[in-house]
Amino acid sequence: MKKIISVSALTVLLTACAADDPNKRMKTGAAVGAAAGAAAGYAVDRGTGGALVGAAVGALAGGAVGRYMDNQQREMEAILAEQETQHAIELQRMEDESLKINVSNEISFDFDSAALKPAFMPTLENVAGVLQRYPRTVIHVVGHTDSIGSDSYNMQLSQRRAQSVADYFSGQGVTQDRLVVTGRGKTEPRASNDTEAGRQLNRRVEIYVKPIIEGQESEAYQTPRSYQ
Question: Where is the signal peptide (predicted)?
């Protein structure tokens, strides 16, 4: 059974990779390696797996990339309009044509919990529906926390929350080989952790939707840094 690609923070990856048996990796191993390699910085074959995935779904080329992501963005804007108005969700178009959905933990998780709030599930269901209609993308789910608590605890909590979102997408029919899960803990704050307002902004899950581009297939599996 295929597993969702899971990429934790740098220190966790370096430890895990030393003991990992490559035969246990999913069949799109090179694509997994590209995602993990982007986070951990070790040498991997960054071409083969991504190209195979791109060939399977049909990689995008030229002006088709922008049009494909334009259409997907319009659908996302329509289903997220209410949450954006309430500042619970932010939708951005990135320079590399990716879409970034920033989700506040206040609407998605209770304090110290990785269980999705039931009230948030219909929104995720709508997002999953759009993702299914646009299969030529890779979805990165990245968890973040504030600075309260230990480094290891925050790393694990951010990973579990990101995994919960990815698991929900998978349960709604998004294929698992398109999902990359990363926990970044408190390492990438978007605001100061000295105030409650800042800590609230830092507690979040980011969803990146990256197009699979012809000739650059493995790039779709590289998880962006926050505000990269």
Answer: 1-18
